[in-house]
Fold each of these.
Amino acid sequence: MTLHASFEPATVGTMPKRFFEEREDQSEVKARIVSKYFSVWARIIVPRARAQRVGYIDLFAGPGRYKDGSASTPLMVLALAIADPNLRSTLVTIFNDEDPAHTRNLAEEIAKLPGIETLKYQPVIRAGDVGGSIGKSLQTIGLVPTFSFIDPFGYKGLSLGLVQGVIKDWGCDCVFFFNYNRINAGISNETVDEHMDALFGARRAGQLRTALRGRTPAQREALILEHLAQAIKELGGKYVLPFRFRNAKGTRSTHHLIFVTKNVRGYEIMKEIMAKESSTHDEGVPSFEYSPADATTPFLFSLLQPLERLADDLTERYAGRTMTMLDVYNGHHVDTPFIKKNYKDALLALEAQKRIVADPAKRPKGTFGDAVKVRQIVTQCGWRDALRQWVNENTKERPVFQGDARSGTEELCSMSIRWSCRGPGPRGG
Ligand SMILES: C[S@@+](CC[C@H](N)C(=O)[O-])C[C@H]1O[C@@H](n2cnc3c(N)ncnc32)[C@H](O)[C@@H]1O
């Protein structure tokens, strides 16, 4: 397997002039998410890479340093490689940018990195426009296990073909920058149909345009991301994880980082990383967003009680089953905002409420190990909803839930309906 790419001749495109003046918090968060994942991914993949090479590709690499002197992602990734003996001898890097001034600057900055000469494979730096042909060539060439970062300013150059090209081979994951602001505006703008079709696929882009009519901003965002995730999943990107950035006031979304992998372990690792970079957590459940404004309004985010919702969902989904904590987590976490710790907290709360029995019951306080068995999960929804409806229809009382939830059968729970209500219950009991 080889790692190479062909590039079109360099062209200079438009770009926000201020971007490289100084690194904003958001760029810092973005660079941290990418470099942290690269570091963990490499530790897992390097020993398993048959060709004894792994890759890092950044097709929109920038000039290397911001004007304030802070390092950008390419330099951070190379510094990690220099510090790691396994990566020094295996990592192949390709950096591309359409602006030759950027690639020149990047080459100079890379040359200044202490220890750069210790890398077995010196970085390949190219100036070229990531247009149609690179997406197409990446779809056909084989890649060694590679982590790719696709970081354009807007949507130009970003396509499903490109994403598929960089994730199709074993051990290949990618993160791409999704400029929500511009794509949200572009999806209804005929003059950029070509770019939108490249991003969502022509058929799906058409469906999306229809679906977006008359929607609120929040609904638009959810629909756009949903269509994007579906398009990526159709192309083999089994797990898709977005992380949202908001504007300075925290009032609207500006862009997302979208992580794509075929491997659930990669998904879990990135989820933990993005969780730590989230600017708010509600009962320990991460927001998966960075909003500069959240630091000043932390209380707004503690009203949603997501752990209670998780606990209710688990009791409903796994009613009557016996399974380990790890089975519960593995069977539920994909496409949810919940991380492993949230499952442990939810199960601890359920145990305290006697809605589950944990085995072993005697454990260090506040712990719920992966192998702890969760027995006799008590369903709530069916009988509670039935009771609530019956009480509403037949009495003026509020329903009172009694009974021994620990014994965990619907039959027993139905008995509590009789205890708490006068007259025949919803099951005629
Ligand atoms: C957001 S910056 C990249 C920042 C960099 N990844 C980092 O972490 O610091 C986007 C870069 O993409 C380059 N660019 C924009 N359009 C491009 C295209 N079509 N092909 C290649 N590079 C492009 C710009 O010159 C700019 O340097």
Note: The chain has two domains: 17-277, 300-428.
Amino acid sequence: MEIFPGECYYFGTQKVSWSNAEAYCRSMNARLVEVETEAESNYLESQLRVIHQHAADSTTDQNEVSYWLGGNDIETEGVFKWVKSDLPMTYTDWSPGQPDDVGGEDCMELRGAFQYHWNDLPCNIPHHFICEAPGFESSNTIGKK
Ligand SMILES: [Ca+2]
Ligand SMILES: [Ca+2]
């Protein structure tokens, strides 16, 4: 945790829609995670690899490793932004070919089957999710290393 002092992550084991995941995070005074740097992205991936490596079933289906992130393109199709901060994305980690909006995909996930890169998919699909509770926020730090 020392990479992000003051920040706390919660990896939801239940599977819910994107909006229910966001509501769950808010109920904990948190939010769906907004991934602003490569370091944060790498940190989340490393945590998920540990979580799923230690799962009782060692043959975890990577398609099950799917976690909602705090962004969508509901407001303007094709323009993804972080919902809580209402900011466009300066750092992105999309899987090759994503976002593709096949059949109308407006919410963002971090997907194990896509080498832990991002994908867009329908918001009503039940998935795990990651909440983030920042210790403090400063817009001045966004986009800087
Ligand atoms: Ca879309
Ligand atoms: Ca997609």
Note: The first helix runs from residue 18 to 27.
